[in-house]
Each structure stands twice: as C-alpha cells, then as structure tokens.
Amino acid sequence: MNGRGYVCLIWVVGDRCAVNSYVEAVRELACEILELMAAGLRVPDTSMLSNFLRDSDSDSLLRLNHYPPLQLLQLLNTSNKIGFGEHTDPQILTILRSNDVPGLQISPQDGFWVPVSPHPSTAFCVNVGDALQALTNGRFLSVRHRAMVNSCRTRMSMAYFGAPAPNARIACPPELLSPHKPNLYRPFTWDEYKKATYSTKLGDTRLRFFTVQSDHDDLSE
Ligand SMILES: O=C(O)CCC(=O)C(=O)O
Ligand SMILES: [Fe+2]
Q1: Phi/psi at 113 (nearest 5 deg)?
Q2: Is 181 left (phi over 0), alpha (psi -120 to 50) or beta?
Q3: Which of 62, 153, 158, 161 could be 91's S-S partner, Cβ–Cβ 3.0 to 4.6 Å?
Q4: What distance in angstroms lies between residue 139's CA and the mean position of ligand 1's atoms?
Q5: Which atom from ligand 1 is nearest to the alpha carbon of 89?
C-alpha cells in the first residue's frame, strides 16, 4: 500500500521487449492525438505538443495498477472502496486501459462522479494532464478522476503518462494568447512542476501555484 488507497504500483521489469513495443505504440498514439489537438487549435507547428513526448529525455512512464477486490481487503480489516484517490494527472496526456472490471470515475464538476466503462479490447481512455492544460492556456482541461475497487473482482489498469523532459519549458504558444485570452499560467519547467507535485497532496490542484496571479504564492503554505 502506498498511502494512496489500495493501489499497488509495479514498475515494469518483466518482458522488456513486449513492454517496449507497447510503450512505443501508445507513445505514437499519444503523439497523433496531440498533433490533431494542435491542428484543432490552429497552432502553426502541429508537432509542438507531440515533440515533448518524442524528446529522447522525455520523462514519460508506464504504470501498472492492481486493485484487489473489496472482499479480500475486508479480510484484512480494511474497507476503503477508493483504490486510487481523486487527482489530476500532472503530465501532458495519459493513455489508459484496464481489464474488463469497472472502477474508473471522472469528475466533470465538483462532487459529481461519472463512471467510465472499460473496453479492454476496443478502447483506451485518454486523459488530458495538467501540463497540457497549461500548454493550451486552459483550452483543454485536465480531468479529475479516481479509481474504485470492485466488490468481488480484481481490477488492473495500465497507464502511459506522456511527459516532457525535465528541463522542458511549459509555456503556451503566442497564437493561443489574445487580449481576451491572456496567459493564465506563467512558464515553468517540468522539473519545477514535478517538485510541486511531490510537495503537495495527491488531490491538490497544483496548477494554482503557476497561475499568473499567484507568482508569489508559497508552495509550503
Ligand atoms: O486505475 C485507473 O483506472 C486509474 C489510475 C490512475 O488514475 C493513475 O494511475 O493515474
Ligand atoms: Fe490518474
């Protein structure tokens, strides 16, 4: 247990070849999605977002989550139905798939949770992360989500988090700025954002430390 519920984080060490092929394929998918998003935003350089993931120093990662069934957890005298507490993903884009056990929920609005049905053989769930929200000046919003445990079945999920390189500068392109849409976030590096992530709680909205108005906010408050 890692203090985030009953999620068991496994860093992949098994069949490297299969894992590498999977990561390459989902990275390509994420890049194509980001290029379509950039085109939709009419950014002249449509690879401006995908380049972050293609960078050889990209901090992208693959995470496997394992949620034992509630019945089993109750034998251990714990009955927390939340497997992974509510949060937004800090990175640019997440490509997630799970086995056929439901559990993922998204919150389009405070206090409301909408279940996302699993489609293990036909569909991925794609989450906008905080860095993409900043890069698009809030045109795309990072989605708050959580994962519940199932009462009798084990749930497993696999998430590819497409991230920038540590020293990459996260700044909205000038084409997305106008007097009516001024910059919401000050430029920051991915390293700075990761530090903010580590020094706050899982469910915190860390982008607030990077809003233009909060230039002088103290992370330790
Ligand atoms: O297991 C899930 O469906 C969600 C996992 C998740 O949100 C994460 O790993 O960041
Ligand atoms: Fe997540």
Answers
A1: -125, 130
A2: beta
A3: 161
A4: 23
A5: 10
**pLDDT of 34 strictly over 70:** yes
| pTM to 2 decimal places | 0.90
Output the CA 193–ligand 1 centroid distance in Å. Answer: 19
Q: What residues does ligand 1 touch, defined as CB less than 6 Å away?
A: 63, 65, 84, 89, 96, 98, 103-104, 145, 147, 157, 159
Positive or negative CA dihedral for 66, 72, 76, 78? positive
Q: Which residues are catalytic?
A: 155
Q: What is the reported pLDDT for 59? A: 96
141 pLDDT higher than 90: yes
Q: How far lies 46's CA from each of 39, 74, 166, 176, 212, in Å? A: 6, 50, 22, 13, 26
pLDDT tens-digit profile of 75-94? 777 778 999 999 999 999 99
Residue located nearest, by CA, to atom 10 of ligand 1: 89
